Amino acid sequence: MIKLGEMQELVIAKKVEFGVYLVSPDDVRGEDKILLPQKQVPEDAQSGDRITVFVYRDSSDRKIATTKRPKIVMGEIAYLKVAEMSRIGAFMNWGLEKDLFLPFKEQVGEIKLNGEYLVGLYIDKSDRLCATMNLFKVLRTDSPYKVNDMVKGTVFSLKRGLGAMVAVDGKYLGLIHEGEILKPMRPGDVVELRVSNIKEDGKLDLSLKDAPRLQIDKDGEKVLSVLMKNKGQLRLNDESSPEAIYDALNMSKSSFKKAIGRLMKKGIIDITREGIRLAEKGSGIENRNQGPKAIQRNNDRNNGRSRSNDSRNSGFKSNEGRNSSYRSNDSKNSNYRSTDNKNDKSNFKSKDSRESYRDKNKERNNTTNKRK
Fold this sequence. Notes:
With 372 residues, this protein is an alpha+beta fold. It has five helices and 18 strands.
């Protein structure tokens, strides 16, 4: 089958004065024929020979073949120059006699004469080849790449909250996530990339080659390693001199500041005036990254904290002892009260006895007086 917009190998079925007719190798009957003009036919070409050609439509809207390869074919993107502007769209130079049409509905932004724009190729409803600036519908998702393969790509769109859309090798759709982009990017930038993931639908997740973020992660690991060797503390912070930082960590001050900033955001370290130290809530991460001895040391620290807490709790117990002493004091007070009561009663008894004694004396005196 002859395919519009693609480079393909066809067979010479018949020679005529104005050229040769070509058919697809699997077209035994030769029903689908296409003309290759005489000026394109090799001098020694014979019937049955195979020729690689590109198929498009001429100015009369007829399918025609050419041995020239245009600047863009189906499934690719390229920068093309605007050769003419019209009411219905723009015409772009793509290296063939007939210019490529870019309809208004396929344009993105302002288009100017002689301007160069990144476009792809598609077939419209009338079975004609046209250009489009909406590259999502022309890039392929059947790439041959594997994870960690290095590739080149062209940025064609930037989407806030998503990242940079990339045409990998001018054919395949990929994305650099926003979190991977640490420096300004613009449409048209050509960048070296690493395939970090291949999605189920074939789209590529990409990382910038030697991206600053990856370097920050390496620097962060180095900072953590030195922190652990120094019992979780390091007398360096963002106010330290570049020389001191380089001597301790063998890295620049800029890299150091980025690394500790990232570690602090993750809650792994705290930054103080004296330097940096492992954060309490980072102990889980610390344990995952350390060996058994380091983990045991952390457990010992935690046990020490537990013992100190127990001692504090024992203080509360001693308070109970104090309370018991208060209770004993209360009992003493009750004794005092009971003693007072006894004294009061004894006082009452002694008073009564004194009164009875007076009464008896009076009676005796009266009796004596009577006898006299």
